[in-house]
Write a structure and sequence with these properties.
The chain has 172 residues and is mainly alpha-helical. The chain contains four helices and three strands; from the N terminus they run H-E-E-H-H-E-H. It has one domain. It has a three-stranded antiparallel sheet with strand order 1-2-3. A hairpin with a 2-residue loop joins strand 1 and strand 2.
Length: 172
């Protein structure tokens, strides 16, 4: 059996637990939205933020949303393959804390969105940020609605970029 703890002190179990917490929190918030909002409902919170209920059958920015249904299974398969690869990376590098943290965030977000696709056929989005300076890019300045899983994936991607920048800097 492979050792669960590496020289750097990171543990595969800790990183998988973090991913599970992200997925559970994501599903909890989505259940709140599904239980209290109908599709298209919105609640004004601030001048730049609303809580909404939106469904996304596509990927980021609704990519392939109108593809006819096959994309559901494609995105589920892709996310499961990526999740397997991430677990393999976490197992190989649990002591690289920033790297493993970033991967755990991505894994938790991917699992949260896969659960949606499997249960509903779409991903539940509910965070709606809008600013007038975004109007040239997005309808009425509204950034596409997203959820906690998407936010975790974004944090993870930023973490991976930061980890690589730090790795390159250490290598100089």
């Amino acid at each position: 059996m492979a050792r669960a703890v590496s020289r750097g002190g990171g543990s595969l179990a800790v990183w998988l637990a973090l991913a599970a917490v992200v997925a559970v929190l994501d599903q909890f918030t989505k259940q709140l939205i599904l239980g209290h909002y109908r599709l298209g409902d919105a609640t004004y919170v601030t001048s730049f933020f609303n809580v909404v209920r939106a469904h996304n059958t596509g990927a980021a920015f609704s990519f392939l949303a109108g593809a006819g249904g096959w994309q559901r299974w494609f995105f589920i398969g892709l996310a499961l393959a990526v999740a397997g690869f991430i677990v393999w990376l976490l197992r190989a590098h649990p002591g690289q804390k920033l790297f493993a943290f970033a991967l755990s965030m991505i894994l938790g977000g991917a699992v949260g969105n896969v659960i949606d696709r499997m249960l509903h056929g779409y991903v539940v989005d509910f965070l709606d940020f809008h600013w007038s300076f975004l109007a040239p890019l997005f309808h009425r300045g509204h950034f596409p609605a997203f959820n906690l899983a998407d936010a975790a994936i974004t944090v993870g991607a930023i973490g991976l970029i930061l980890d690589e920048l730090l790795r390159v800097r250490r290598g100089r």
